[in-house]
């Protein structure tokens, strides 16, 4: 009995470590990935070979790709996610960031980041912004230029440009690989069984087909 209890406690302890773990603390000043040894793929951020310190330059810690907006989607949103795959100097530092530009009236649809809390700073414009907690309570308001909002890790959040001019938001994450799950695409663009969607949302097959065409990740970039 005591042996079973010990094994159970060990399993629970190990599971707790896995579920509570975030980006590990660095064990050196920095680790700029060496492209000679590995590709900069997000799934392998934690296993990238470092450059020799003598080969690291100031340019490894400077990123210039956020000066202007990215490519706008048909929905009027342009997203530039910045992680070690674009900015090698971020590797092992436990952070990443994003630039989001929204045309007047456009929406960054409900989504969440499973591995990070986000802080969003409104550089320009007026943005209706908020998140929903696990009791379905909404915390939202219009943010004006210079204001900041935090979205707790794993909670659904959203933005909508409610002004008459374009809006720009800079977001920062406490993980170099926060992950992004967009709710509309996850539901209607992932291939979930049609019967389940009909029963869950009370939609007809025709309505589901319309939603699938709209949120197919292969044809929609957000």
Automatic annotation (TrEMBL):
One of its GO terms (cellular component) is apoplast. Oxalate binds at residues 108, 113, 118. GO terms for biological process: plasmodesmata-mediated intercellular transport; regulation of root development. The keyword Signal applies. Keywords: Apoplast, Disulfide bond, Glycoprotein, Manganese, Metal-binding, Secreted, Signal. Disulfide bonds join 31-50. Mn(2+) binds at residues 111, 113, 118, 157. GO terms for molecular function: manganese ion binding. Residues 64-209 form the Cupin type-1 domain. SUPFAM superfamilies: RmlC-like cupins. It is found in: Secreted, Extracellular space, Apoplast. SMART domains: Cupin_1. It comes from the Eukaryota. Belongs to the germin family. This is Germin-like protein.
């Amino acid at each position: 009995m005591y042996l079973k209890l010990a094994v159970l406690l060990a399993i629970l302890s190990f599971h707790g470590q896995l579920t509570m773990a975030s980006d590990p603390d660095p064990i050196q000043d920095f680790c700029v990935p060496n492209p000679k040894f590995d590709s900069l793929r997000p799934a392998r951020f934690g296993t990238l070979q470092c450059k020799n310190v003598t080969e690291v330059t100031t340019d490894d810690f400077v990123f210039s790709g956020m000066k202007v907006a990215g490519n706008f989607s048909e929905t009027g949103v342009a997203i530039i996610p910045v992680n070690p795959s674009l900015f090698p100097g971020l590797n092992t530092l436990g952070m990443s960031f994003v630039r989001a530009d929204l045309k007047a009236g456009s929406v960054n649809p409900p989504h969440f980041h499973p591995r990070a809390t986000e802080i969003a700073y409104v550089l320009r414009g007026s943005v209706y912004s908020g998140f929903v907690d696990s009791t379905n309570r909404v915390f939202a308001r219009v943010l004006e230029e210079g204001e900041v909002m935090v979205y707790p890790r794993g909670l659904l959040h959203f933005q909508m440009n409610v002004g008459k001019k374009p809006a720009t938001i800079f977001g920062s994450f406490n993980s170099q690989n926060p992950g992004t799950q967009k709710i509309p695409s996850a539901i209607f663009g992932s291939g979930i069984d049609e019967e389940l969607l009909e029963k869950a949302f009370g939609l007809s097959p025709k309505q589901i087909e319309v939603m699938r065409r709209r949120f197919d990740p292969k044809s929609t970039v957000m």
